[in-house]
Design brief:
The complex is a heterodimer of chains A (about 400) and B (about 110). With about 400 residues, chain A is α+β, with helices and mostly antiparallel strands. Chain A is built from seven helices and 20 strands. Chain A folds into two domains: about 250 residues, Naphthalene 1,2-dioxygenase Alpha Subunit, Chain A, domain 1 (Alpha-Beta Complex), CATH 3.90.380; about 120 residues, Rieske [2Fe-2S] iron-sulphur domain (Rieske Iron-sulfur Protein), CATH 2.102.10. In chain A, strands 1-14-15-16-17-18-19-13 form an eight-stranded mixed beta sheet. In chain A, strands 3-12-11-6-5-4-7 form a seven-stranded antiparallel beta sheet, with no helix packed on it. A three-stranded antiparallel beta sheet of chain A has the order 8-9-10, with no helix packed on it. Classes of the chains: A alpha+beta (about 400), B mainly alpha (about 110). The interface between A and B is large, with 47 and 41 residues.
Chain lengths: ~400, ~110
């Protein structure tokens, strides 16, 4: 059974533009404005707290546009906090490994010692310091909030808005959507492109009929939806989201077919299941042939809720011409061998799809920087991109 | 190398163990991109008709309590799961035209097994 696909558009589209001048936006000078006007002021996704199951678990990550190294840790009190990865003594990097579990963090330079709640608890040869105010020399905390396990930070001294105010209505629409899941893949790649083009590539489904013909030729669309229109598309102040239409006539490849007979279907096969079990923000229109959602969290992250899996993608500018792309994939917890094998197959299909997406963004950047494209023209199906540039201009002009 | 590493039911797959029973995504990715399609094809053709039985066999255990021989079979199945797509999709190579260079990928550790 198929259903005719007419896109349901939601949200305020009155200030969106379908012609975007690009070349100046991708310049070094413009990037400096974006760092100060966008990255230093926005709520930013930096990771997922599923990696912090136990007290003392931590991971270190960096925020390239702000040149910051961060420690994300679950303290002895169970609370997740984010600190600058800097010893308060003379500024050396405090933690040098990628992750671990620790009650205390000790600087290797002079062994100043901090608790995992950020307090300075030990100063070597403290008697030699005059007037050392230990109480105020704890690790520097960055404002953070954990939302559905996803860790957001805001680098403002006092954020203009709480995360709830920043996200608006969708804040309450995803309750439990990634519960009982575990990280199954974490891929990184540094691409020679501008971060706007990188995040744009994952915010529209207009491209998938063409660019993904090698890897997942028939995963979306149907005879009644040949152009693979999104069944649902919504724009908001700091987000955009759409649902993708699964193909009811998708033919699993030989290996894919066998894996999903033993386990739960996953990308590029899509499960049919009880939609009522989903939080209202996931597949908001309850499209029957639902494949997955894409939610763009302005400025530089995308999450992909799906029946048996979900992803977080971050697009971090290193400079105006280089982007650090981080992709984390999660799937249901399992100890059953065929489940993990089926998950691995799905992850690889996703990884190959990603490599198709990556292939376009370097050449696109080169073309635009050659001053060869006065405007980028965007269709209604690419409204999330229109909304991305509207949101950027709102912040830069405020 | 010892001659018998897999459960006896799967002795026909023994010949693939040394090169293809790989224990991490990064090593399987490396393998996929450093063989030719002609080298991949015999492995695919040996595994495809057996994978259904392999999965059934493995599912009598949990991942955390796989016996040593089943663990090797599991690794073999994982490599198949992650290298089947070029032949499954009738590619002319182990990679597709204009793919983003495979060497660019960095694999970070994950908590899930295997």
């Amino acid at each position: 059974m198929t259903e005719e696909c007419i896109t349901i558009f939601k949200g305020d589209t009155s200030r969106l533009k379908n012609r975007i001048p690009m070349v100046d936006r991708l310049s070094k000078e413009f990037f400096e404005k974006e760092v100060k006007g966008i990255f230093a002021k926005s709520w930013l996704i930096i990771g997922d707290s599923k990696e912090l199951l136990n007290k003392g678990d931590y991971f270190v990550t960096d925020v390239p546009p702000l040149k910051a190294s961060l420690i994300v840790t679950r303290g002895e009190d169970g609370k997740v906090r984010v600190f600058r990865n800097i010893c308060r003594h003379r500024g050396d990097k405090l933690i040098h490994d990628a992750s671990g579990c620790a009650k205390f963090f000790t600087c290797k330079f002079h062994a100043w010692n901090y608790s995992n709640t950020g307090k300075l608890v030990g100063v070597t040869d403290q008697g030699q310091f005059k007037d050392l105010d230990k109480e105020n020399l704890g690790l520097i905390e960055i404002h953070s909030e954990v939302w559905e396990d996803i860790v957001f930070v805001n680098f403002q001294e006092k954020p203009d808005q709480t995360l709830k105010e920043w996200l608006g209505d969708i804040y309450d629409q995803y309750a439990g959507f990634s519960e009982n899941r575990v990280k199954v893949a974490d891929h990184r790649v540094i691409v020679n492109t501008n971060w706007n083009l990188a995040v744009n590539a994952f915010c529209e489904g207009y491209h998938n009929l063409f660019i993904h013909k090698n890897t997942v030729p028939d995963y979306q669309g149907s005879p009644s939806n040949p152009h693979r229109h999104r069944p649902y598309l919504e724009v908001g102040k700091h987000f955009g989201r759409y649902s993708a239409p699964g193909n009811p006539n998708h033919k699993p490849t030989p290996a894919e077919g066998i894996f999903y007979q033993h386990s739960r279907p996953m990308f590029p096969s899509f499960a049919h299941f009880d939609m009522d079990a989903l939080p209202i923000g996931v597949n908001p229109s309850r499209f029957k042939q639902w494949a997955f959602d894409i939610v763009h969290f302005f400025p530089n992250a995308v999450i992909g809720p799906q029946a048996n899996t979900n992803s977080i993608m971050m697009f971090w500018p290193i400079s105006h011409q280089q982007t650090d792309i981080r992709v984390m994939r999660f799937s249901y917890k399992t100890d059953k061998p065929s489940d993990r094998i089926a998950q691995a197959h799905s992850l690889v299909r996703n990884r190959e799809v990603l490599r198709e997406d990556l292939a376009t963004m370097e050449t696109q950047f080169q073309s635009i920087m050659s001053n060869g494209l006065p405007f980028m023209h965007l269709s209604e199906q690419e409204q999330l991109l229109q909304n991305h540039y509207r949101a950027a201009d709102d912040m830069l002009n405020s | 190398m010892s001659s018998k590493q897999l459960p006896p039911e799967f002795s026909d797959l023994e010949v693939w163990v040394q090169d293809w029973a790989l224990s991490s995504e990064a090593s399987r990715y490396q393998k996929l991109h450093t063989v030719t399609l002609e080298q991949l094809k015999p492995f695919y053709e040996a595994m495809l008709p057996r994978i259904d039985s392999v999965l059934t066999y493995l599912d009598q255990y949990t991942i955390s309590k796989l016996p040593a021989d089943a663990r090797i079979l599991y690794n073999l199945a994982m490599t198949f799961a992650e290298t089947a797509h070029p032949l499954d999709l009738n590619w002319k190579d182990v990679d597709f035209p204009d793919a983003y260079p495979w060497q660019g990928f960095e694999f970070r550790t994950v908590s899930a097994t295997g």
